[in-house]
Structures are given as C-alpha cells and as structure tokens.
Amino acid sequence: MNASNSPDDLSPPDGVAAGLDRALIDDIGVPPADARPADLMNATAHLVRKRLSQRWVRGQARESADKARRVYYLSMEFLIGRTLGNALAALDLHDDAAGAMRARAQRLEDVADHECDAALGNGGLGRLAACFLDSMATLGIPSFGYGIRYEYGMFAQEIKQGAQIEHPDPWLENGSPWEFPRGNVSHPVHFGGWVEHRGEGRAPVWRAAGEVQAKAYDMVIPGHASEHVSTLRLWKAAAPAHIDLNAFNTGDYARAASAKNEYENISWVLYPNDSTPAGRELRLRQEYFFVAASMQDLMARHLEEHGTFANLADKVAIHLNDTHPAIGVAELMRLLCDVHGMPWAEAWSICGRVFSYTNHTLMPEALETWPVALMHHVLPRHLEIIFRINQELLDFAAKQRPDDHDFLARLSLIDERGERRVRMANLSIVGSHKVNGVSALHSDLLVKTVFADFASLWPERFTNMTNGVTPRRWLAQANPQLAALLDRRIGPAWRRDLGALEGLLAHRDDAAFRAEFIAVKRANKQRLARLIEQKTGTVVDAASLFDVQVKRIHEYKRQLLNVMHAVTRYHAILANPQGEGGLPWVPRTLIFAGKAASSYWAAKNIIRLIHDVGAVVNNDPRIGKLLKIVFVPNYGVSVAETVMPGADLSEQISTAGTEASGTGNMKLAMNGALTIGTDDGANIEIREAVGDANIFIFGLKTPQVQQFKQHGYQPMRHYESNPALKRVLDAIAGGAFSPDDPARYRGLVDALLWGGDTYMLLADYEDYVATQKRVDALFRDADRWAACAITNVAGMGVFSSDRTIGEYAREIWRVPVQQAGG
Ligand code: 26Q
User: Fold this and answer.
1) Residue nearest to atom 11 of ligand 1 (CA)
2) Whose CA is closest to atom 14 on ligand 1?
3) Is-catalytic flag, 557?
4) Is the separation of the CB atoms in 238 and 259 below 8 Å?
5) What is the whole-number distance in angstroms between the Cα of residue 597 and the centre of ligand 1?
6) Beta-bridge partner residues of 446
7) How far apart are CA 409 and CA 403, in angstroms?
C-alpha cells in the first residue's frame, strides 16, 4: 500500500522525497539549501495538500452526480490540532516524508512541531467534533462540517508565578497551508431591524438593519485507508463590499476601518466555556452568523441537485452539536416558509425529519438561554417563529395533560420566571427527530431529569450515542511505538477496526510481550519527562508512577480532590519516611494540565494551588524523588499527544452524575493507562469493557449523590471525623503552601467546609485515598500492572469514534457507511 503507486495523481510519482525541492521553490519561495524546519513543514504540507485536493475534487463530483444524502455537522467548535502528521498517515506517506527529512538532517517530528494547532474549540465538545470528522471521512460518509473561522482560537496559557495568564492565539498569522479560501462562495447574513406583516396569505418580510457577508474557507479532512475526503467549511465575517466603497470614496479611512471592524468582529474570537454561560450579544450573533451561512450553503447545493425542497428531508441530515446552532431550527422554517413560500405544516414536517441534536451537559445552569429582548433585537423574525413553534408545542402538550400548568411551563420554549428567556435546548428538542446524550449514564439521566417532560411526550425521540475518539490520531499518530508493537502482534487492521485490539488478550500471558509493552511505556514516559522538563524546568523520574489529570479546570472535575490526595501523601511521607505498611513508598509524579476560563476565579485559584503545593513538595529534601507535582502549561491537542502515551494512571474523578462522558478517559486507557475514577460518564462503560479487576472505581454513585443532596449533606462531619483530611485542609487554608499570602486559599477551603461542598469532595476523600493505596500496591508489581494495562488497551475497541459514527449514521442520520477495511 504505497501511495506513490496508486493511480491517484498528477503529482510526482516519488512522493515527498522527490517533490520537496520543487515545493520549496514553487510554493514557499525558498532555495532548498536555505530551508529552515518551518519551511520544510510548509513545503511538505503543500505537497500533501495537492494530493488531497485531487481526491477531494473527484469525490465531490462523485457525490454530486450520485445526488448523495449528506450529513451536515453544525458546531461552534472544531478542535483540530495539527494536520500534517494526520494527513501523511492518511496518504501512507509518513515513512516517505520521514526519509525526506532525514536526508536533510532533520527529524519529521521536529519539523511537524512548527505547525500551529488549529485550536478552534474549548475542550471535549470541540475535540469530539474533530474526531467525528475523521471518522466520517474514513467511513466514506458524504459530509460537511460547518463552523466559524475564528481569527483567534482558544487562548494560549502562560504560567507566571503559578498563575494563569491568557494570551491571544493568532494561529493564522503566518497563514495555514490547509485552508482553501473559496472566493466564489459567500452568503449574506442579516441582523436586527423589524418584521413587516403584509396580511393574510402573504409571507412576512424581515426588514433587516444590518448585513454581513460570510466567506467560505475550506479545510480538507482526509479519510484513512480510504479515497474519501470530507470538508470542514468555516465562515469568516466580512463587511459587504458596498460599505467599504462608500467610505473609501469619501476618503474617510478611519470611519471605513471602524465600520469594517464592526462587521468582521463576528468571527474574531472563540468564546470561552465560562462558568456561567455569557449572555453576550456577540455570541448570539456568532451563532446565527454561521448557521445562516451554512443553511444557505446547503440549501443552494440541494436546489442545484434536486430543483425542489420537497425532498429535503430525504437528502439532508443536519446535526446540532449542542444547542449552539439551535437557531437553525427557526432559520430553516424562515427560509422554507418566508423565502421559498412553503406552507408552515409542510416545512415543520421537513424540519423535524432533518434535524438531530446532541446534548453535552446535565448541569441545569449550563443550559443555554437567551433573553427574549435580546433575541427580539438581533433576530426579530426568528423570535416570532419561535413563538409560533411554542404555541403549537403547548397546544399539543395541553391535550396530553390538560390543566397541568407546571408541565406546560417547564416544556415552554420561553422561561417566564424572571426576565423572559428563550430556552435553546427546548427549541432543539422540538425541532429534532432524535436527541442523544453522550454516554449511557448521561443519556439515562437526561430522560430522568432535565428532559423528563419531553421524554414523557416523545419517549422514542431520546437515545444514547456513547462518545469515541479516533484511533488514528490518538493511537497510531500519538503513540508510534505502541502502534508498531500492535502491528507486529495483531497486524495493522486495528486502525480502521479497533475491535481488533481484543486480539491482544491472547498475548497478555506472554512474558516477552509484556516486557515489550513495558519498554514502550517507559520510552513514552521518557518523552513526556523531556516535555515536562522543557516546559516547567522540573526534572521527573520516568521510573516513578506517572499520575495524570489533564482536562479543563473545573470544580466538578475535582482537580482539588487530586491536590488533597497529594498533600495527604506529602504529610504521610513526612510522618513515615520509610514507607507504609512495611513497604517502601511508590515514587509518584503528579502531572496536571488544563486551562481555566479567564473569568472563573475558583478554577484559576486551583491552578495556583497546584503550583504552590508543587513548589513546596518538589523542593523539600525530605521528600526527594518520592513525590513530584508538575503542571504542564498550555494544554491542547499537541500537548495531549505527548501526555496520553506517557501516563500510567488516568484521573477521572468528577462527582458521579456530573461528567457527561469524558473522552480523555478513552484516550488514556487506549494508550495503556489504568483509570482511577468515579462511577460517572463513560468511566462506567470503560469499566464494563476492561473488567473490575483492571480499573479503580471509588466514591459515591449517582443515586447516593442525589440522596445525600436531598437529605442534607454535611461536609463538616467528614472534616471533624477524619484527622488526615483535617490536616490537609488546615494546611491549605492556613497558608502552609502560600506563606507569602496565608489567606490565598481560604476561599477554596471555605467553599468546602462552609459553602456546602457542591461537588462533595469531602464525602469521596476517604475512599479516594484508600483507592490510591491500592494503586500503589498494584504498581509495585510491574508485571501485573502491565497485564492490566494491556487488558485496558485490548478493551478499548468500542471507544473508537468509528463505532460512534457508525451508530449515528445508522440510527440517526440514516446514511450508509463503508465497512471497516472496505
Ligand atoms: C455556551 C454559551 C456561551 C459560551 C460558551 C458556551 C459553551 C461552550 C462550550 C458551553 C459549553 C461548551 C463545551 C462543553 C463541553 O466540552 N462538554 C463536554 O463534551 C464532551 C463531548 O461530549 C464530553 O465528553 C464532556 O463530558 C463534556 O463536559
């Protein structure tokens, strides 16, 4: 399977090695002898891009000719990371490119490091969208991702004296070799103004006050071991041409520039996933902007292929990645009825067959709502449409449960308590034929709690689609050594058929295999140790247990519980330097990484606490190598690609019932880490896949959490009755780790003792610490630990995003997929 032999292309037959000099001259404008690593990266990217665009053009033509049913995945976030390594692997050009770099005395990894991450997402939801694009392309699903071409992605995190500092992320500063500006594809998007009602039988007219142009920029998404490529189409906001001209003609450049800014700011920057969803007007404009452009785009494609909208639902599936694009429901109704003259009932029937919606969070406070007044100001016609949808919903519901006003008030698209607000989740549910959660537990809780009323109306609408991750990026690319070991033992099919990992179980009892597995893990830990030293200056020992918690910093994810364990261990080592229970201490390295939303005080304080505890522990000569605590700055996709393979232990310790799924848990287990976790999200399904003997589950279960909350949870009881816990909290609150500012962490501790301990850290502390001792015990037996780790890898087949996308395709989108390996 050498791509240079495929009948593919017009491109040079000898791949990267032969084409590189030409590309340096033609595409980069640099003499090959002067090429720096960044030039080599760009030149290689251009070579790869040419091959992909040939496949792309052919594929798009085929899909048009076939009048294929297409999936449109609407998402405010796509956390892609880097593309070069992924594209090389997809084209089977990796070895060829590595050879070409060697011939220039470079390493491909170092060259590839010069690519910026495309960090167009906050965390799990955005990365999930990127894994899904990879799987849709690989499974040959005719598909588009639609989103926003943010000028600035997720902020870059710097740590100064232990505190997070945010910097803008100008990822497009030097251009991106992967984007294709589509000069001929743009759509107008309107805002504001008023609605003119022209009487019976005539459609209302939206007299908008402002217009902005949405310009298409495409990113190519290669399928793996497949000719298929998909498209990620991102929209950039631009002032309409006539605005520019008018101002420039009068010579008023300052006014022209400020007018231009007012339009173009819509696609400037990614909104952070704040602790409280920000009710900011620009965010609503962003949501409508990309939805309106995407809907026009897909409707134009449909009309060109079919000449009618009557069959729209047969040919188009639109997926809402959370409620962020939910305004699409109202926009489709507006386009069909107001613009194309379709009767309301027919349009509503199409709408309900076209849309589907994924929910990613249970926390009621995180459900998106917009003030009615703001919606009226920005999208007056959409608000009217929402009111009409709501009227029909409430009429229907009233027939099911006459006089149950509370029921109707909960279902209503409008929250009438206090300032009236539009509930975007309710709009998404009424407008969709399927609504799913992202793990079995989460989907179950959705129908039992936040969406119980809707589930009583339409039980068949609700379903589960457990998340997955792409094994191409998270195993093949991130962990080449483990990938090579897998290839030798079970063959290469796992890349497209991750269930094949089960074949490892047959090798688990082979001591030689376990030794090889241990050697691969050690090499990956050394690679991670180098990254840690380079980024933090702290030297860590690759022989120690690498205990990893990497994810957004959030109270419900309980990084603070992890820190409490660290302090517990610190105290215990000081008290018993020789060890515990007659056994020496297992040296540990606690590795944290993650960003806090810039306005989230508690999360930022937790980052600071991690650093402060690290500074004390790491420099305490009595501790030596027994405990190290490090925080890797600027966590993102590229950092994750080095962290996942180097982890021994995966911390997934959210309060039961709060983490919808998690996907880092899957990536870590796939790379041979054992999980210490709560009975939450996809952890439960990981336990089922690997067996109780190969995972450390602790703490309260979801029903117990609910019971405790109902019957009055008293955190202070735990504090008073557990001396180790008391010592830990007293030390943190008393300034033991912040002698320069002893009160720095009073607030964090007070929130536990006096503020109700919302996420029940104190209730889970004892079991967590006890479970960490079981972790130590297993780690002392390296061979037994390796057998458990192998069992984890072997069980991860089900967590491929190919499995997830296969389920979406069959059960929600009703599109055919190319079989694995086909
Ligand atoms: C909303 C309104 C205004 C501004 C920002 C937002 C916003 C943005 C992003 C709200 C939420 C998000 C992101 C949520 C998220 O990443 N959720 C995670 O989704 C993963 C994929 O399903 C799950 O695995 C995680 O459990 C879930 O936390």
Assistant:
1) 273
2) 125
3) yes
4) no
5) 12
6) none
7) 11
> How far away, in angstroms, is 122 Cα from ligand 1 center?
7
Per-residue burial over 441-464, b if 16 or more Cβ lie within 10 Å, else e, is bbbebbbeebbebbbebeeebbbb
Q: Which structure tokens are listed for 433?
A: 């034929």
Spell out the residues 6+ positions from residue 243 whose beta carbon is closer than 8 angstroms to its own.
256, 259, 260, 263
Q: Tell me which H or E stretch contains 402.
A: none
Query: Is 667 a residue of the active site?
Result: yes
Q: What is the mean pLDDT of residues 656-660?
A: 98
Among 682, 628, 640, residue whose Cα is nearest residue 550: 640
Which is the catalytic residue, given 473, 552, 588, 687? Answer: 552
H helices present in 401-542, as ranges: 405-411, 424-431, 440-448, 452-457, 471, 480-490, 511-536
Angstrom distance (rounded) from CA 357 to CA 800: 21
Structure tokens at 240: 């309409």
Least confident range of 58-62, 102-106, 250-254, 258-262: 250-254
Residue from 135, 159, 7, 150 nearest 71 by CA: 135
Q: Please tell me the distance between residue 123's alpha carbon and the centre of ligand 1 in angstroms.
A: 7
Residue in 148, 273, 653 to alter for ligand 1 test, most ligand atoms within 8 A of Cβ = 273
Residue 662 beta carbon below 6 angstroms from any ligand 1 atom: yes
Q: Which residue owns the Cα nearest ligand 1 atom 8?
A: 273
Pocket of ligand 1 contains residue 283 by CB under 6 Å: yes
Q: For residues 373 and 739, what is the distance between their CA atoms, to the nearest angstrom?
A: 49
The predicted-structure confidence for 707-740, as pLDDT tens digits, reads as follows 999 999 999 999 999 999 999 999 999 999 999 9
Per residue in 336-388, pLDDT (tens digit) is 999 999 999 999 999 999 999 999 999 888 899 999 999 999 999 999 999 99
Single-letter amino acid code for the residue at 232: L
